[in-house]
Each structure stands twice: as C-alpha cells, then as structure tokens.
Amino acid sequence: MVYLTRLEHFNAAHKLYNPKWSKEQNEAVFGVCANDNWHGHNYDLYVTIKGDPHPDTGFLFDVKELSKLIKIYVIDYLDHKNLNLDVPFMDGKMCSTENLAIAIWNELAAHLPDSVKLHCVKLYETQRIYVEYFG
Amino acid sequence: MVYLTRLEHFNAAHKLYNPKWSKEQNEAVFGVCANDNWHGHNYDLYVTIKGDPHPDTGFLFDVKELSKLIKIYVIDYLDHKNLNLDVPFMDGKMCSTENLAIAIWNELAAHLPDSVKLHCVKLYETQRIYVEYFG
Amino acid sequence: MVYLTRLEHFNAAHKLYNPKWSKEQNEAVFGVCANDNWHGHNYDLYVTIKGDPHPDTGFLFDVKELSKLIKIYVIDYLDHKNLNLDVPFMDGKMCSTENLAIAIWNELAAHLPDSVKLHCVKLYETQRIYVEYFG
Amino acid sequence: MVYLTRLEHFNAAHKLYNPKWSKEQNEAVFGVCANDNWHGHNYDLYVTIKGDPHPDTGFLFDVKELSKLIKIYVIDYLDHKNLNLDVPFMDGKMCSTENLAIAIWNELAAHLPDSVKLHCVKLYETQRIYVEYFG
Amino acid sequence: MVYLTRLEHFNAAHKLYNPKWSKEQNEAVFGVCANDNWHGHNYDLYVTIKGDPHPDTGFLFDVKELSKLIKIYVIDYLDHKNLNLDVPFMDGKMCSTENLAIAIWNELAAHLPDSVKLHCVKLYETQRIYVEYFG
Amino acid sequence: MVYLTRLEHFNAAHKLYNPKWSKEQNEAVFGVCANDNWHGHNYDLYVTIKGDPHPDTGFLFDVKELSKLIKIYVIDYLDHKNLNLDVPFMDGKMCSTENLAIAIWNELAAHLPDSVKLHCVKLYETQRIYVEYFG
After folding, report:
1. Packing angle between helix F63-70 and helix F97-111, nearest 10 degrees?
2. Which of C109, D47, F33, F54 has its CA 20 to 30 A from that of A79?
3. E strand or H helix at F70, and its extent?
C-alpha cells in the first residue's frame, strides 16, 4: 500500500467565539482570536489517500484529478471566504482548525470516488500550528 | 555599511473594494478578493535597517529591541485585526499589499529611534506574492 | 523505539508514458507529463529508520553513515539521470512517484545493514506532491 | 516607487553540453550535468515589477494578470518541456540558469504591457542555486 | 480523535563525546561533532497531542496554553544553553538528537496536565535530520 | 550583468560577550546570548557573485567550483566550530552576525580568483534574523 499526498492552499477570514457566551467570556477564552471584525489565515491543506498503484499508469490515483476534486468539494467553498459566515459545511460549528479539518474530511469522504481511499487531512493554520484527522 | 533584517508575522482579515464603485465593478476588478464577508492572510513582514556595527557589541542595532519596536508600532495594530476596519493608519486607504507595505514603512520611519536607519519593508501576502518598499 | 529521518536530494528527468498505448492515449492520460522530450524534477527523499539508541553513542544509527548508504545504493543511480532510460531498478516500470518510492524502498531494504530497520520512504516530486511507502 | 513580485513554478529537463566540444570535454566541464539522457529540475521563477500603486485599486498592477502574462509568455513554453529541444527562445543557447534567466527577461520585456516596468527575474534551479537578472 | 501539533524553536550548543572513551576514539566515532569547544544548532521542536475537540471551544486544547507549557517545561531549559552542561534532564546522557527527543518527551509527559495526551515529539537538528519519539 | 548565488550551511557555537565588561553588564546587554557555556546555530550562508556568462559554457562561474572555494576558505573554518575560540578570522572580534558576515566577505574577497566578482554575503543566524554585506 502506498500513500499519496497533495497540498492545496486557501485564504480565509474567521473568528473564534461561542455565541452562547458573553463578549467578556469569549475574550477570556479566545483572546485576540475573538476580534469582532475577524482576522484571517493562509491555510495549507494536505490531503493523503492510500491504495495500490495501477499497473498501466503507476498511479494510485491521478494527482491532477485529486487536485480538481479537492478544489470542487473543499477549496471553492473556503478560499477567499469567511469561515463563520460563508461556508455551508461549517454552519453552526466553532471555526477552530480542529473542527475545520474534521469538516474537510467529511466533505471529501462524502464526495470522492470509491476508488480513492482517504487516509489523512492535515491542515496548517500557521507555520507553527497544524491539525491532523484520520477519520 | 551592513544590512540587518528581522522577520515578524501577523494574521489579518481584509477585502479589496473601492467604496466609490458599485458591487459589480468591485467584483469585476477584484474578483474573489472583494468577498463581502472578508478573507484573510498570514502576512510575513521583513524589516531591514542599515548602518555600521558598534565596536562594543558588534551590533548594528539590538535585534530583540528592533523586534519590540516593530511589535509596538506595527504588529500590535495589525495582528488578529481587520485591515479595513481596525487599523488607524490604513483608514481610508485601499487595503492592497502595496499600500500596506507603504503604511508600515511610514509608521516605522516615524517611530524608530534616530539610530535606526530604515532600508526596506518587504511584505508577503502569500508565499507567491510580496511587495518591497524602500521609502 | 525511536525514528530517525535523513533528507537527501536528487535531480532527474523522466516522462510518463505506457509503451503499450498510442501517443494519443498517453497524452489523454498523462497530459504534459507525456512530453516526448522529457521533463524533470528536484526530488526530495526522506528515509526513516527505527530502533533503539545505542547507550555508548546515543545513536540509533550514525546519520552520516545512513547518508552514505542512501547515496551509494540510491542517489548515485538517480541523480542527474533519466529515470526511464538510465536506472536499472526502474527498468520496465512506469516512472510514477509511487513506483519510484517503492523501488527506492526495495533497493534500501536489500542493501542496508541488518542493524538498520527501514520504516518509511517519503518522496517529494514537487512541493505539492509526495508519496510515502512503508514496505 | 513600489516593487511587486510574483512566484511561478515550472518543471523541465535539460542538459549542459557544448555541441562544439567532444563528449570528453563536455564531461570534464559539466560533469553529471552533461548526462546524455538529460536530467531535470523544479524551477522557481520570481518576477519583480516596479511602479506606483494606482489610487483606485491600491495596485501597482493586478497580480493575477501578471501571473497570466508570465504563464502565456514564459511558463507555457518551459513547463514540462526539454529546455534544449522544445523552447524556441532557448534555441542555440547553452541551457545554463544564467542564460535561461536572461532569456526569460527578454521574453517578458518584449511582451508585457507598457504599464508594467520589469525590475528583476530571479530563477532558482535548486534550493541552493539561483540567478538574478536586472536587464 | 484529532491530532494537534505546535512548533517551537530553541538554539543550543552541544558536542558528542563519550567520557569513557579516549579523544581519538571520540573523534573516530563522532568526527567533527566531537569538537572540544562545542558546536550548535537551531532546533525545531514539534509537539503533537491527541484527543477530541471540546464542543464549547472546538479546541482539543488551547494551543497558546500548550505553547506556554512547552516553554516552561522544555524550551526554558534548552534555549541558549549548552545541552551537555546546562540541562538537568540531559545530565549524564549522550547529547544525540535521539536522546534529546526522548528526554523532551519524558519532561512533557511528566508535567503536562492530564487533559493533554501526548502523541509525538519530533525534533529537527538540521533541515536534513530529525527524530520522532512516540513514548 | 548577471548575479549568481550559492547557499551553503554551517553549524557553530558562539556567545556574545564583551571581555572589557563585567558579567552583569554582558547579561544586561546580551541577555541569554551571553550564556557562559555557549549556545549555537544552524547558519545559512548565501554568497552572490556577479559578471557576464561565458559564451562557451553559459556560466558566470562554475557553481560547483564556487561551492568548493566557499568550503575551503569559509565553511571548513566555521562548521562544527566555536566562533569565539576556534576561528582565526574572528579572533578578537565580537561574534555578532554582522561581524561574522563582514569577516566572511573579507575571507572570500581575499581568496576568490580574479574572475569572480563578489557582490553580497547574506548570513541567516535564525530563520527570522539575517545580515547582508556588500563590501
């Protein structure tokens, strides 16, 4: 079994706040990440699939096709968007990197063809913070 | 003469839109960057100063002190903020990387001690786009 | 148990084409990667071994020695070569990153000393595409 | 005046050899870079333009438009190609990074609109070797 | 289950030598790393924890808090220090990257709160050499 | 005229302290960098030369030869050394990045062949701090 990973990028705004809490409580827990007027990041998204290379192509899966599928089902919903306001699959969720990685996994798992076996979603929020989810 | 550079980071939300234009005109010019609900970036800021090392220290200027000054006069105003709404020195300006680099230069030039001669502000918006300003 | 990884580099030419297929079929499947006159990459190769550090040295294995072994059994066969034409252990194989990673694993597994337990071969074709193989 | 830089990538095969020289002389001068069957690289191309930001947009020039122009006039001729065999503007030239950077400058200078003032072409052959050309 | 990773840095001096061995034996085994007067590195430390995000915050654990704990229990003991002479938890140990990664794991495992489940310590000595330890 | 740059690495120990000052004064000025028992860094050294490519080779200068010259005259004196104690050309100098960059320039300028015109020495102490010297 071989693991193939593709890196994609998106830029988005978000904030961290719990609507059930007061402004003070949100600021106490989330600090500057709770800024009313949002902040944002350049996210790096690594998607890893696994399986056996096909004898005719040497490919586990065509990586350009994988890139297109990630674009259609994930990047187009996230890039140059507000994660709290603009993204159907983040609706009603806390916009942490953890929850975003899980939501991206769920979108990919639901829409990738059966021939693609998802292994890992790895999401960098900054160069110093990343989350991995294996389903 | 020696050139000394310090890298700092900040994360911010912004959008590109000209308030004198219609929504359609903004979208035609700025595309996804005009998204109503903002998007954001991890900005990398390189500040370069120049001069001669001091014989007692070997330092052009104490780089930790330089880092503090950049933090006080620039990063604290930009990090985890909305560039269009929260930043006094961007008020009324288009929030392009070009204008932001110029504004950062102006803030630093106005507030750095006389012993620090500013040479360049280099600002990455993404890993593939950066602006340099030399005053 | 500890895992120790060493990064090596090589630059090579290759193309993706299946000799059983017509030119049109190859272009339909492999696109620009089927270019008759080849293209090429700077490959990054991460080799991970595992085991327990030796009490006398603190080393799982001497990393400079590991580097030499990777050079002798892998890099010298691949660096500044044509993967389709010049490499005995790729002979008759599709030159995908998947197959190259597997072939590198097989070469290392066959030639590394018994004291080195191979864990992973990770191969970057570009900064956005990599393959991992664990045997 | 502000300087704006855009990074683009291309992957290509090439070899270094002087057709006026013997095989032995080529190998003596160019070593493994003279390999008959080619080798290749992931090239990183930084294109820097200069000028004043426009008051309506804050843009020196639309960076997405710059990216398209680099693609049309440079990347499409180089990406997944053989630099010695496939590239009209390298015809009859030694395929060194130096000559390639100069040729890219000449292509861009000839085809970019008058509103774009080219400042620098910076070309990485590997992470450890790059060339800059300022015209 | 989600995995969250935080990157921290420290700069330190060390040397590799076994006090039971002669100077010649140390040089034979450790080469330039046995230099009497030390050498040093910029170490990159990745700490990975695992668990489930909390529904109120979307956080597995507050990453700023994780950063503080790594600082208090690890970085403050290592940064701008001599690993052989200044670090209580390396006392009497060979200062290899392998042993340092294990020692960092032990410090973190002993001092992190029960709510944080440590998964991996990954330590880069240079950009080409790193060690992982999973306990 | 073309500019050609080569990146080399070295790892070294050093400390910042002025022997004319008391221990307290050194700690007040240099902080943790004055640690008695040294600390260290992975230094990245970029050497830039300038000139015209030769028509027979397309080379400004053979980059492998440049690498060897940097190794012989600079890296071999610095790598796995103590900058304060082991390096003849740093003798009696404050071991700041500024002074080290100037000293490297002086060594290269004195020993490179006449055909190589030195343009810039750029020295990274960490990923966030670098110095440039142009002679």
Report:
1. 120
2. D47
3. helix F63-70
Per the annotation, the verdict on D33 as an active-site residue is yes
Chain C from 105 to 134: CB within 8 A of any A CB = 127-134
Tokens found for residue C11: 């630059």
Give the count of beta carbons closer than 10 Å to the beta carbon of residue A20.
8
Q: For residue C96, what are the contacts with CB-CB under 8 A and spacing of at least 6?
A: A53, A57, A58, A59, C16
> DSSP labels for B45-104?
EEEEEEE---TTTS-SS-HHHHHHHHIIIIIHHHTTEETTTS-GGGTTS---HHHHHHHH
Q: What is the CA radius of gyration of chain C?
A: 17
Closest residue in C to A60 (Cα–Cα): C98
Instruction: Decide if A101 contacts A125 (C-beta within 8 A).
Output: no
Q: Is B94 touching D (CB cutoff 8 A)?
A: yes
Choose, from A14, A95, A107, A125, the residue flagged as catalytic: A125
A121: distance to nearest CA of chain C, Å? 14
Taking CB atoms and an 8 Å cutoff, what residues of chain F touch E80?
32-33, 35, 39
- Rg, C-alpha atoms of chain D: 17
Render pLDDT for A86-101 as a digit per residue (tens, 0 to 9): 999 999 999 999 999 9
Residue A125 catalytic? yes
Measured over the CA atoms of residue C91, residue C93, residue C95 and residue C100, the dihedral's sign is negative
Torsion of CA E110, E116, E121, E126, to 10 degrees: -110
Partners of C117 in the beta sheet? Answer: C50
Mind telling me how many Å the CA of E88 is from chain A's nearest CA? 27
Question: DSSP state, F80?
Answer: T
**DSSP3 helix / strand / coil % (chain C, rounded to 5):** 35, 30, 35
**Rounded to a whole number, what is the distance in Å from the CA of A53 to chain C's nearest CA?**
7
Active site residue C132: no
- Domain A2-133: CATH class, spelled out: alpha beta
- Whether the pTM exceeds 0.95: the reply is yes
pLDDT tens for each residue of B97-126: 999 999 999 999 999 999 899 999 999 999
| Residue extents of the structural domains in chain E | 2-133
